[in-house]
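[retry 2/3] DNA-binding protein RAP1: previous attempt timed out, resubmitting with same input.
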Amino acid sequence: MTFSTLHFEGENTPRRTDRNLPLSMNSPQRSPYNSRLGLEKSTLFTNREGRSIRFYMEYSEPRRLHYKALIETHGGVLLDHSVTDCFWLSTNPLTGRRSYRVQYIDDCVRLVTLQDIRIYSHPDFNIDTNLLHRGAGDTTSGMEMDPTSVAAAVVYGDAQPNPNLSSAADLPSDFALATASTSLSPGTAPKVRTHNRFTPQKDAFILEEVRKHPRARHSHEFFRNLAKNEILKGHTGNSVRSRFRKHLEADLQYVYQQESDGNPSKDAHGNYIPTKELPQTLKNKYTAEDDYYLCTEAKKYILAKESAKDGGEGRGSGKLPELKVLLPYSFFSNLCRPDRGGQDEVADSENNPDKRNKKHIGQRHTLHSWRDRYRKFVGDGTIEKYIKSYEASENPKPLERRGVINSSSLNNMTGELREIVGSNARNREERALDEEIGQTKSSLIGVPDLNMSAGDVLESLEPIERPTMREIEEDEEIIEDIEVDDIEDIEDFQDASTQLSSIQANFEDAVNPGSQDSQSVMKYIGKGVKFEDLFTDPSVLNYDLVSKLNTALRSISDDVQELAECLEELGFKQALVEHLLYSTCCDKTRLFFLFRHIYNNLQDNLVSDGHIPVYELLQPPDEGGFWTKEQDDLLQAGRDDALEVQNKRQIRTRREFLNKL
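[retry 2/3] DNA-binding protein RAP1: success.
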């Protein structure tokens, strides 16, 4: 390729005015963003063949939407994903990546001609192979190519990147150069943007703090406070807790002896005293008062619902149903509200001079802990029996956990149930359920074996219309980690001695949205959704939210509870949390891309006239791995052939996801 074949445009070169390029060249590149704004599209950022020059900006860039509009209304394309033959634009230099100042776009538009992009290059940095975003890395004839030359090949219609286009001497004389004022002066160079990763120093700090407070090693509150330290700036409590549990706990080796007040003991020289005896973790046990509160509130809610079914005129029987009622998520959310009465009674006596603040009973435990308590300790007829027992006793006791299934009871189950439970669950020893209720054990009933065919799964259980959202409280009721290879999932059923038919009936009740309040199931977002239904504070929807979500997701697993807590910490409301989890099968990679897609839709709609309903803006892209209600209906009807965008693996994954829940 000779330089004479390149099409450069200088200040003296007439600008192309032919807008009648083949539709096939421009139509796929045209952004709906511009068509909504009604802006005319120029050909500034196109090559001689009418192909758009491709740029990329990270989503954390503060004026990304502005430059997206500017680039696309002048013929270029701002990509959603980085590719080899594109120019990276950024406000600040990027570590390990050649990038160019966004002023390049402003100057090209202002001067109505392409400028020498290399004058806008940020200072070079050494490649860090550990970074998420790496260099182009495309090679030609065994040589690593510069991203500039790779992009230039596309801009100027060359078939291959030109590795020789690397110095100012190689530029043709008519290539317009920007003025010296556009160069980045060393004195004003912005700080290098770095990724927030855990370092050996951070890990050592986390371990040392846990050694000082070993009883709090699983407490969410402890790690939330720990994350406020300067050394962990940029990490969330969830992130720090996950780092300790997954990567650092095995390196703990020892802790420090504890005083009765919970502080570490010191020897005569003021040094902490190490010990290899790991103490019990903090407990927040349920009291009889807590259980009475749970039962009375549940009774009021159920009777109110029964009365409403009878016309709301109080014609209900006033008696609870014989069978246990599955309460919706909203009930437990309201249970924790501080304005529901039921204050702790605190004696104002000389024995309690520092009288602790009155605290609403519902706030003693988290939403998920209350929900788990009800699920595991309340059975058929439990509510009425416990209320009577509590009111008649001078020293009432907390609720007793319903039947526990252990290895001996599993051996007595039918062969059909064995197939569902799986051999790993049959042979596993009983595990401690949690720190909050130390005397109880968790039951180990598995979901359908994921090695079974889809047909076997559907035969073993009734078809699932919508799954319930499985949420396990890890703050107050901690279940030890179980490897995926051992058991794919763990779910509690109603009774230890229940046979297969009874278990199937309970499972069907749990997943059938027709029999319970619709708020008790994980579901897609409704058509009547409004913007204020999505975030606790609308101001969180800014360019930084996508970056925060990306950082938070790196440190957690695909567990539904971890993902839900992560989203809630970032300000997502429950409706949006469930929509994101349900649409992506709790796959955190797809979840991130779906939210980034939604974020762009919301921002574009706000910038334009905002006439598109919010419901439409929340719909996932028409790509494999993202699911909608219409696709689930086809899946439920067995019409796999109609799911054109989903391949066999994605269909199998969806079925497994629904059956696990």
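[retry 2/3] DNA-binding protein RAP1: Residues 407-519 form one domain.
[retry 2/3] clearing retry counter.
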